[in-house]
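2024-03-11 09:14:02 INFO queue: dequeued item Nuclear receptor domain-containing protein, len=345
2024-03-11 09:14:02 INFO validating residues
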Amino acid sequence: MTCRICGAEKAETHFGGISCRACAAFFRRYVNSKKVIIQCTCKQRTEKSYPCRRCRMNRCLAVGMTKTKVQSSREKNTRRVIPSSELATLSLLSCHIVPRFCFKIAHTIDSWPELDQKRKSLYGECFYDLNFLEVSNMARSDTTLLWSLGVMIFPDLGFLTAKDKEAIICNFFPRWIVMESSIDYCTNQEHHRKMMDNSEELEKMIIKFYGSSMKERKPDKEIVGVFKPYWVHFYNEIAEPVFQMKLDRVECIALFLMILFDDAYTNISEEGAKLCRNLRKVVLRELKGYQTDNNLPERRLLDVMSTLMLLEKGEEKMQEEILLCGLNNVNLHDDFKSIVQVKKL
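2024-03-11 09:14:37 INFO prediction written
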């Protein structure tokens, strides 16, 4: 069977008319295109040239091709760009304005609202009402939710051994706590800065967070003396620099995925580390493409990656803080301690 439009061989029915694949593809592109060719340009072409778009389209219609049988342009061909000036907040991470050419990152952002609701059901609407023990009680359930999102975006994670899965979760979760706390600082920066300026309010929060988690309550002054330096360090050395980065939602999600797929620890098997490296490459490629598409400076990628170093420093201080919790009778759930205190190197 020959194409009734151009005479090529191996034709078949497309959109209601008999044509080759090339003419069918032309018809589909023409129907979905915003460009409209009104005038015929065949007189300006040589005898051996193909007919102009208008005449070729008329032939398509003449052989029975129907526009209504062509599907509209797929959403993946549409680029919706995130304004790079927006700050990274959990509410913004849940937005649906994502760049479709960053498929894995976009899929993560699209899936975040559902995850966010599940985590709110776990922790409650106001995280500030919880003490350290209550937060630690949620650790295992929270890591399960976060890991499930990772597997949905990257199904290959489902083939990891149970040992590798647990190791990756333990490597990821402490830095995610630091990252999410930094995001919260960006979300509520005015509130946090006022609290930093008002030492009394900061100390009240510290006393509630640790004191109400203690088996044997220590004096308030002692609690403040032990733990306040860690809060001040976090605000000044971690959260404020992250805020100054002005990270947008794509960059925040990319960091979330890169924290999850860190292959630099020896508690992961070589097969697990190889998978993490490959997944990280995918995330980095999409992040670089996003930044290039938005004409961001080349140094922007390095600046975003430097956030990972900040998170590592934050994790080190958090490990010190948890050790002090043990020395000061702060009661924490065993699951939380097994996750954040695992030997990684």
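2024-03-11 09:14:37 INFO annotate: The radius of gyration is 28 Å.
2024-03-11 09:14:38 INFO item closed
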